[in-house]
Amino acid sequence: MTVKLVTAAVKAPGFYGLNTQVNAAGLEMNWALKADNLVFDDGGTLGARNGWVKFANAITGTPDFVSIGEYRVSATTEKLLVSTAEKIYASSTTSTIHDTWTDKTAALTITAGYWQFVNHNGEVIGFQSAHVPVYWDGASGTNFALISAKSGYAAPDTSMVWGNCGHSAFGRVWASDSTETILLWSAIGTNHQWS
Fold first, then answer.
1. What's the rounded Cα separation, in Å, for the pair 15 and 46?
2. What is the pLDDT along the chain (195 residues), one digit of tens a residue?
3. Are 100 and 148 in contact (CB under 8 A)?
4. CB 42 within 8 Å of CB 33
5. Nearest-CA neighbor of 128 among 178, 54, 191?
6. The whole model's pTM is what?
């Protein structure tokens, strides 16, 4: 015996969330059984992930990027940061595709490009294992510099070997040492006074 097919409108697919527990035959249509390439939106429901825009490496010599980060200059302006094995570059903010890049390494000696960048109080700080952290205030004509070069720099141990993990939260900058077992933190409101 044939059964007439009836169309069913599902206004909010996946609105109830992802269900991996109950057999699909017993679920209402608002449950998602698979959620590939989706994100949770501000309302806590599943939403489509934004698309990607491919951009070409416009840096002279097209070096390989090792890490990428974002520097939030202001609430509406950001610069992309990319590191190669020996350099750190910043994008322009005049183009939405960040097609103009400037070398911000200056006199720094960089021996690897695995930088993790964090934003704090209008500056960006870069962490990488076996390197003293670097910072940049985003001012035109300036480059990244060692955080130890900042006026009033203080660390728990000047011979300390920094790790490659950093984070900015609760008014402080947090970092690991090279053993990845010791947590270091800055004083509130500063990124160069450390405990």
1. 6
2. 677 877 766 566 666 777 777 776 767 777 777 777 777 777 777 777 777 666 666 777 778 888 988 888 877 788 889 898 889 998 886 556 666 888 899 888 888 888 999 999 889 999 988 888 899 988 877 899 988 888 787 876 656 677 788 899 999 999 887 777 888 888 898 888 886
3. no
4. no
5. 178
6. 0.68
